[in-house]
Amino acid sequence: MTTAPLTADPPRVPRRLTAPEPGWTASADVVVVGSGIAGLTCALRLREQVDRVLLVTKTVLSAGSTTWAQGGIAAALDPEDTPEEHLHDTLVAGVGLCDTAAVRALVTEGPDRVRELVALGAEFDRDAGGEIKLTREGGHHRDRIAHAGGDATGAEISRALIAALDRVRDDPGIEVIEHALVVDLLTAADGAVCGVTLHVIGEGQVDGVGAAHARAVVLATGGLGQIYTSTTNPPVATGDGMAAALRAGARVTDLEFVQFHPTVLFLGEGSTGQQPLISEAVRGEGAFLVDGTGERIMAGRHELADLAPRDVVARAILDVMRDQGVDHVWLDARHLGGDFLEQRFPSIVARCRELGFDPATELLPVAPAQHYASGGVETDLLGRTSVDGLYACGEVSCTGVHGANRLASNSLLEGLVFAHRIADDVAARLGDGQLPLRTPVVEGEAAVLDASRRLDVQRAMTRGSGPVRTAGSTSATAVDLATLAALAPSGAEPGPLTWETTNLLHLGRALTQVAHRRAETRGGHVRSDFPHRDDSRWLTRLTTARAADGALVVSEHPVVGPANDLTDDLTDDLTDAFTDDLAGDVPVATEHPGGTA
To answer: Which of 13, 151, 289, 555 can pair with 70 through a Cys bridge, CB separation 3.0 to 4.6 Å?
Structure first.
């Protein structure tokens, strides 16, 4: 597993971000941070069971990644489908690194959670008989993707949950603060979490930095997509919760497994920020990928062809781009017809036409871009992290459900299922007196990196820790990030943009460290200098934690359980297909040098 050391000394991060002292305080039994499907579900369920819940969100309630989810939510709702089949497909996509118990919780509880979402008011698309329409996406062997508004599933789920929240806004048991960026986690003398510091921005009810004290904190802050120059994630996805947890000592696992969505509309060289996503559901309805000569890219590469798992499709596109010296390939949906496309994918069609592309009459230029972080703050089956009182849910978390690669449309389901579990566990522990009110202790060094350096961080990560990595590229990125980190103590002006930039820096250093250390290609992690399969090195998970001196220490933990025993032909074919492709084009490493990162 190990390769040569990344740097002479492990990277270090400060305990806190430089920020003004809190000028006001608030208190609650539980603070929930984030307003996607995970945060809203958790806050609504907690409100039914505890005295006071404080929900804080970075901008407005509807601005997170959930709103942007086009494809749908996966669950075994069809009478002919089973949770066991859903489990199988998830384990295959995760390439042996899933936590099977977590996946089983997801697929068995998922159908009931989706039905509860419908009862709450979410309106999914239905067939002529009134049943929820189900479609298929990459890696699924059944039609089990429920969608709404054709390609606006996340927006409809967000609408329904916010409407449910609006119905209880007058309830003194729940308070909502928008435009609130969490700066850091407050911890007690024993290391347990006891609240957050947060900055209420612009239109918020309270100006400046304050402290929200609580017996428990639930992070539902989403992913870290803005760590790269191009991403499908919204601008708010700067890894704030993940970075705050890392600084507070929480274990962060599987950070190297970043999913790059294969079909993101290519807007030209140099395009940065949030890029338009062409949902996998378009391929689920029959669209397919072709190269510049019109040859189908996925033919013969995988039994599911254009509906192979996302990592397989993304690698195939990258192979073609490399071999043909091009910066994108093409998605052909013309045969589906304008009427069908406009009805099934109204948002996608409208956005494409707005940008000068018409999927009904012309090929769409597409290329992979960062989409989802399969790793995050490590949790158990109840959403508890390694820090007492701290929970994590949704993309900020690492439940073990996704393993090395997220199966399409499992993310919304994960947020729904584990938010429910977290709320019940927090309520039970509060009732038992296991989560006392603690006094925060502010200690440790503080530093920030000036916001003007954000693009430097993003470019370094994209070059060296992006979709294809080598020992050399990750080493170069580590040096670049260390140089930027050395600038942090110079006294940059604290503020939201500076805090976001520093969070990206801290997570970039942690991600690059484990991307360098994992010496194999599978799932969302591509090391072109280690193309061959080696189960003896693969079946372990990498965890990063901040030591008392600030050093980011990596530990290895073997995978146990049935996910370790995926020996079916499909998994072998999936792995062999892309390792064979890589093996013919890159030098083969014959040794794994010793040392630790």
So the answer is: 151
Residue 12 phi, psi dihedral angles, 5° rounding: -125, 145
Q: Transcribe 310-367 into DSSP letters.
A: HHHHHHHHHHHHHHHT-S-EEEE-GGG-HHHHHHH-HHHHHHHHHTT--TTTSPEEEE
**Tell me, what DSSP letter sits at residue 148?**
S
Which of 269 and 142 is assigned the larger pLDDT? 142
DSSP string, 381-433: TTSB-SSTTEEE-GGGEE-SSSTTSPPTTHHHHHHHHHHHHHHHHHHHHHHTT
- Tens of pLDDT along 342-361? 999 999 999 999 999 999 99
Tell me: pLDDT of 295 over 90.
yes
Q: Which residue has the tokens 């949950």?
A: 161
Task: Say which DSSP state 142 is in.
Answer: S
Q: Side chain identity at 534, as an amino acid letter?
A: D
Share of the chain above pLDDT 70, in %: 91
Query: Measured between alpha carbons, how far is 546 from 12 in angstroms, rounded to an integer?
Result: 8
Backbone φ and ψ of 186, nearest 5°: -85, 135
Residue 92 main-chain phi, psi, to 5 deg? -65, -45
Q: 263-367 has which fold?
A: Flavocytochrome C3; Chain A, domain 1 (3.90.700)
Q: Where are the alpha helices (DSSP H) in 71-206?
A: 83-93, 100-120, 153-166
Residue type, 429: R
Q: Is the pLDDT at 425 greater than 70, yes or no? A: yes
Kindly give the pairing relationship between strand 230-231 and strand 208-219: unpaired
- Residue from 519, 541, 485, 523 nearest 594 by CA: 519
Instruction: Tell me which of 113, 310, 517, 518 is the catalytic residue.
Output: 310
Cα 595 from chain centroid?
A: 30
Decide the pairing of beta strands 134-135 and 193-200. unpaired
- Pairwise CA distance, residues 123 & 163, whole Å: 12
pLDDT digits (tens, 9 = 90+) for 480-493: 999 999 998 777 89
Asked about 310 being catalytic, the answer comes back as yes
Domain boundaries, the chain: 263-367
- Using one digit for the tens of pLDDT, what is the confidence trace for 53-94? 999 999 888 877 788 777 799 999 999 999 999 999 999 999
Dihedral (Cα; 62, 63, 65, 66), 10-degree rounding: 10
pLDDT higher than 60, residue 547: yes
Looking at residue 591, its amino acid is E
Q: Which pLDDT belongs to residue 207?
A: 65
